[in-house]
Design goal:
Blueprint: E1 10-15, H1 22-38, E2 43-49, E3 55-56, E4 63-64, E5 68-69, E6 78-81, H2 86-93, H3 96-111, E7 115-118, E8 136-137, H4 144-150, E9 155-156, E10 162-164, E11 168-171, H5 176-189, H6 191-201
Parallel strand pairs: 1-2, 1-6, 2-5, 6-7, 7-11, 8-9
Antiparallel strand pairs: 3-4, 10-11
Helix pairs in contact: 1-5, 1-6, 5-6
Domain DJ-1/PfpI: 11-182
Organism: Chryseobacterium ureilyticum
Pfam family, one: DJ-1_PfpI
Amino acid sequence: MKQEQNDKTMNVAFLIYDQVEVLDLNGPLDVFVKANVVRPGSYNCYTVGQSSEAVYTEANTMKITPTYDVKTVPKPDMIVIPGANPDQVMKYLQNDDFQETVMGWVKNCYHDNTVVFTICTGSMHLSRTGILDHYEITTHSMLLDALEEYNPKSIVNRNIRFVDQERLITTAGITAGIDGALYLVGKHYGKELADTIIELFEYQ
């Protein structure tokens, strides 16, 4: 892993939407939040939704109000896309409004040099954007076949925790998002910071 020379604060936008998987969202979010505690000024984390209205997480256990919507959000250096139950993700894939508004925003940011980091089934959300074309990618084991079917120009990797393609990072299921986030912290600011967060997490 080659460390980047990073002195500026990185804007990290966490996409939230109805029925988002809680650990997909909060696992990586807490990695970047802890990095900012240990090394102040590392990351500026915020949430973004299709609108400013609150959304329910998986199983309607809680409501989250996004910090911004896609029209008011500051330009992110990285967008984190958590996943959801496979059935929900496939519904979003067929939802033209979500694809045009939310994935359209992601696509525009990506083409403006924003890094896209997907967690679990979150990579499936990108299947109509063209962002995944010609990249090595992965997702939760339950959607690997579907990801391959919807992205014939991509190479779908199996039995791997995450795949780094520079401006596109995809991870396998749920807890792999924590692994991917720790990897990115190490890439951005050095292994020592990532190791400190692992100790704080008591993460095996």
